Amino acid sequence: STLLEVRGLTASVKETGQQILAGVDLTIREGEVRVGSSWSRRLQFYWRLVIHAIMGKNGSGKSTLTKVLVGHPHYEVTGGTILFKGEDLVDMEPEDRSLAGLFMSFQAPIEIPGVSNFDFLLMAVNARRERSGLPALGPLEFYSVVSPKVDALKMDPKFLDRNVNEGFSGGERKRNEILQLSVIGADLALLDEIDSGLDVDALEDVANAVNGLLTPQNSVLMITHYQRLLDLIKPSYVHIMENGKIIKTGDSSIATQINEGGFKSIALV
Ligand code: ADP
Ligand code: MG
Ligand code: MG
User: Fold this and answer.
1) How far apart are the first and last CA of the chain?
2) Residue 209: which CATH number?
3) Count of domains forming the chain
4) How remote is the CA of residue 141 from the centroid of ligand 2, in Å?
5) Less Cβ crowding at N or C end of the chain, within 10 Å?
C-alpha cells in the first residue's frame, strides 16, 4: 500500500511569500511481503524493502520538501495534496504527523535546553504508546530498551544524561538523530543529509542502524549529495530535484551516473 502520496505540492516561505516548491509529485510505497510456493510446494515468503533517495543541486528545494512534509512553521502550503497512509497531512500539527508515524532528522537539529536525551526519548516513546493504548514504560524498563541501541551506534552511555543536542559535535548530533529514530520508530523516516559531517566509520555505524530498522512495512527517504551514503544504504528509487520539482525518477543507476558525470549527465526526458 502507499505510505506517502504527494501531488502537485507547492509551498512558499511564509514570511515573504517566496515560492520554493513548484509542484512536487512523489509516491512512496511501503515494502511488500508476498507469499508464494516454490517448485517443492513449500510456502515461501518474499519481501522487498523500499528506500528512496532524493538528490539534487544545492538550493533545489530538497530540505524544504522534507520540512513542508513535517509541517515546519516557516513554510506555507499553497497548493496540492500530501496524503500519509491515506490521511491528509496539510492541516495536521507537526506533533500529530510525528505521532502518525512520520519521522524527520533535521539537517541542523535543534537544541532543547534543560531536557536530557533520556527523558526526551522516554517522553516520545510513551506518547506513542499512549496513542496505541499501551501502558507507559518506566525509566528502568526503558533503560533496557535504549541501552543496546546506544551500544549499537557506538555512543557513550553518558550521552543519555546530556541535554538534547546541547554541545554535541556534528557527528554526535547525527548519531543522536538515528538513535531517536531507532527508539521511537517510524513508518516513514525522512533523513536529510545524515552523512554530512560524519567520517567513514561513523557513517557506517549510522548506515547499519538505518538498514537494521528497515522492514517490509516501512520506508526511508534519504537526502544526500553523495554516493558514499547510497553505497551503504541502497536506494530502490532515486529522485532528482531541481527548481522545486522532482524532474526525474529512476533506480540507483542514476546515483552512479551523477557521481561520475555530475547532474548535467542526467538526460531529463
Ligand atoms: P536544498 O536542501 O536542496 O539545498 P533548500 O530546500 O534548503 O535547498 O532551499 C531551496 C531554496 O529555497 C534555496 O534557494 C533557499 O535559499 C530557499 N529557502 C529555503 N527556505 C527559505 C526560507 N525560510 N527563507 C528564504 N529562503 C528560503
Ligand atoms: Mg543545502
Ligand atoms: Mg538541504
Assistant:
1) 28
2) 3.40.50.300
3) 1
4) 40
5) C
Distance 193 CA to ligand 3 centre (A): 7
Residues 17-49 pLDDT 10s? 999 999 999 999 887 666 766 666 677 666 778
Per residue in 147-193, pLDDT (tens digit) is 999 988 888 888 899 888 777 777 888 888 889 899 988 999 999 98
Is residue 58 within 6 Å of ligand 1 at its C-beta? yes
pTM (predicted TM-score): 0.89
Measure the CA–CA gap between 102 and 119, rounded to whole angstroms.
Answer: 21
Residue with cell 549529495: 225
For 204, the domain range is 2-37+44-265
- Interatomic CA distance for residues 246 and 12, integer angstroms: 16
Residue 261 Cα distances to 151, 253, 267, angstroms: 39, 12, 11
Residue in this structure with the C-alpha cell 496540492, named with its chain if needed: 80
Any residues with CB less than 8 A from the CB of 208 and at least 6 apart, and which? 152, 232
Ion ligand 3: protein residues whose beta carbon lies under 5 Å: 62-63
For the chain, residues with pLDDT lower than 70 are 32-34, 36-41, 44-46, 106-111, 267-269
Helix (H) or strand (E) holding 63: helix 62-70
